[in-house]
Structures are given as C-alpha cells and as structure tokens.
Write the structure tokens for this entry.
Amino acid sequence: MRGILIDLDGVLYQGDEAIPGAAAVLEWLKESRIPQLFVTNTTSRPRRAICKKLASMGIEADEDRILTPVVAASCWLKRQVSGPAALFMPSATMEEFENIPQLPAHQESGAAAVVLGDLGEGWDFPRLNRAFRLLMDSPQPPLIALGMTRYWRAEDGLRLDVAPFVKALEHAAACEAIVLGKPSKAFFQEALKMLGVDAEDTIMIGDDICGDVKGAQDAGLRGILVRTGKFLPSDLDGSTHPDAVLESISDLPAWWEQNSP
C-alpha cells in the first residue's frame, strides 16, 4: 500500500465535531509521508469552505488536496459542452463553476447540460419539475449527477442526498445520468491521477458501503469501512464485503502497520 483516499463527512467529522483521533491520524500520515487525498461527494459548499470547516476542528487541508464532484464536473463541462449549464446546487458551490456559462434560473429550455448536486431542503416541486422540463427539451441535454450518495447523517438523523432526485429524473425523462462523483469509476480514476498512485496500491476509507467501499473496489482499490457517520450494522449483511472494518479512522495507523509489508 502506498496511498490513501479519505472521505470527509462521517469519517473525519460528523456535523460540526471532529471524529476523535482524526487530526492525529492526519498528522501520522504527514509524518509517515503517505500520500493522501480527500475525496468527498459534498456539493453543498466549495473547497474553500470545506478547508475552513476542517480548520475549525483542528484539521488542516489544502484546497488542491480535495477532490469534489463539482471540481470534476467543471472540468468535464469545459471539455464536453458548448453552451450554458443549468445548475441545481447551493449558490455557494456555484463559485467552482465561475468559468462555466450558466443558464438563467427562470429558463426552462436551452440548457446544454443539467447538473444536479445536493440541494437538501432547497428541493421543492417547482425546482425539480424545472429540471425535468429542461431534460425533456430537444435535443436532450446530458444529466450530470454530482455523485450518487443515497443519504447522509445529519445532527437530526438521516437525510436524503442527491441520488434519489437523480433517479427520479432519470425515470421521468428516460435518460441515464453521467455520474461525476462517488461511486463512479471515473471519479476514482481522477483521484488516483491527483494522488499519483496506482489503484492496486491505494485504499479508500469511508463510511458509505456503496459510494466509498463498493465504488473503490469496482475501480480496483481496496475499501475500508468505518463504524462512524452513516454506518449501519446492516451494511455488513449485503453483497459488498469491505477489505477491513474499523471502529473509526483513529484505528487506521495500527491497521496500516499490521497490513503493510
């Protein structure tokens, strides 16, 4: 093993509280000179805000060491699309798309792409129906999903993430989304390029049995599941079998020492 991909929400922190031992593990990674990259499906805030949140919990991170679906989507749109994109995401996140032409919020046709992120309570029928109408335009624009996370754990309990809304639009508009986030294989490949390590030499540590563990394993990495964040005991009863299960990220150094040649 040579490199590590690390999820954020549910692994390094939960809500506004750091997972006990998370900062110490990152210091261990730094001292051990183990390449690491933060990979998150968070689309509710830009990398600048992510770094600020981590810093408030005593966790240091640089923007260029964070890969989000928004960053991946911005690069994809620049390469593949000519025309304005309809963005369905929090306004703060849109700063990552500052170099991408954007369709005015009131228009219901003329989008070169429809991009869905996590809007949380910002979703309502008119907004979801506008995305549907845009996708029913001719020619049909591509639907870009900023990850396919099903749900996440907030302070008040589990909440829907972006995947249920993507699935609703796929069904209604008879289309298939291009996924630019976990568990997409392309997203993990982009992370490996940034990390500079081959898949077989890399582990992914996360709290999501589908997005983190299965997504990583499908891309040729090893997937480690932590019993924090959104973890549920039933996660271990399905068809996906993690390469390891840790109580929390604080157990990573000991596991690494036992499993490294």
Q: What stands out?
A: The helical segments are 22-32, 47-56, 69-80, 125-135, 163-173, 185-195, 209-218, 252-259. The two ends are 8 Å apart (CA to CA). The domain at 3-41+183-259 is CATH 3.40.50.1000 (Rossmann fold).
